Amino acid sequence: MSNAQDPRLDIARTSAQLRDGALTPTGVVERCLQRIESRDADLHCMTQVFADEARARARALEREAPRGAFWGIPWLAKDNIATRTGRTTAGSRLLEDFRSPYDATVVERLDAEGAILLGKTNLDEFGRGSSTENSAFGASCNPWNAERVPGGSSGGSAAAVAAGYAAFALGSDTGGSIRQPAAFCGVVGFKPTYGSVSRFGLVAFASSLDQIGPLTRTVGDAAAVRVAIAGPDARDATTRPGAVSAADLAAPPAGVRIGVPRRFVDEGVDPAVHENFDATLRRWTDAGGTIVDIDLPHAPHAVATYYVLATAEASSNLARYDGVRYTRRTADATDLDTMLTRTRTTGFGAEVTRRILLGTFVLSSGYYDAYYRRAQKVRTLLRRDFDTAFARCDVVALPASPTPPFRHGERTADPLQMYLSDVFTVPANLVGGPAITLPSGLVGDLPLGVQLYGAVAQDAALLRVASWAEGSIGFRAAPPA
Prior knowledge:
The chain is α/β, with parallel strands linked by helices and 481 residues long. It has helices spanning 11-19, 25-43, 51-62, 105-112, 155-162, 179-185, 219-229, 262-265, 271-286, 302-317, 336-347, 350-363, 368-390, 415-419, 426-431, 459-473, and strands at residues 46-49, 74-78, 116-121, 168-173, 188-191, 211-216, 257-260, 290-293, 395-399, 435-443, 446-453. It is globular. The two termini are 18 Å apart.
């Protein structure tokens, strides 16, 4: 299931052509900018395009010998990752004019490897959403079918990679915000182990859950980006010490054990998703894998647990956006209380406001023990479930989403249905381990994806299995031009 006419870039092939002189950084940048210009009026993946800066960077790279793993490779940053170039808006009117005085650590590291930043991608405001319909700057569209959402909150990054705007993009994943849009757009989305990639320069959503990661064409590309951006950082105390190990993708694992929690997977899943998931499992067994039945007894409570903890942390993190320091403020207030109230009520969108209210409620006196503390206990139980599972299997397999990409507006009136889009992705963030989404086929003209979870800090091992799984699935296709 391949497409020989696929126009999109990948890192490995483009890098090889750059280094042997078949391509130039300027030529690659111009190709990407033309792609953005021709498609983004319809897809609206981008919040900013750094055309002049990218061209200047490409010319500068051409004046020196190739250096770094990403020399001349164009990439995109989700617009909640701080860059000194342009603005960092987080998809919110409150930060519409904010210019960061520094680059995020991941931006610094990619710059040191010779990568070329082309621009910033659209997202649900402050990362709150599963469809990229909550951006203050308008919704993004799925390049496979513009009537459908690209997923969220990293929907702009996923759609841009699928549409061929750049070789890869960075997103952030708090409850599946890299992996679910990757599935909806037919690309690879990787969430590294919590703390393996610095969050310095990431606009915080829920600080114990957030993780930056790549959206790419292939597992090999995701592994390469991980090596470039991961590693300890003195500016982020949650990063893990020690050198980053590269994933050896050359040799497939022998007899990989794939854990499947059937009781969790069999409920509330669209029939097309279920059929695709079962077909994918059959391909893996045909390729030598072994399916192991496992139980994750607390996984059905993961969404409720996540939305207690995530909204609590979001409420705390968003308290800084008050119009006093660096955000927009209302101009028609005569006293401080009125200014604070009007700035926040007019500056935040409906979904962000909803999550602030939920988070404030679960942290309030009289409800903290009933909700927040209990959710932390369930989080611990869920971690134990996965520890038990990984004693019997190498990876855990799940669908990436219970449904195919849904239509614009289909779930905005029912927040609960929107939140249930994350049912198969939030456990990875609660546990803190790595997880990856792989394209697994089409239903009609819409892509589907499957997920693999790995044990905490076993990112290289997960990527090795994912590379084998990707080859066994054998699916790669481009959205229609």
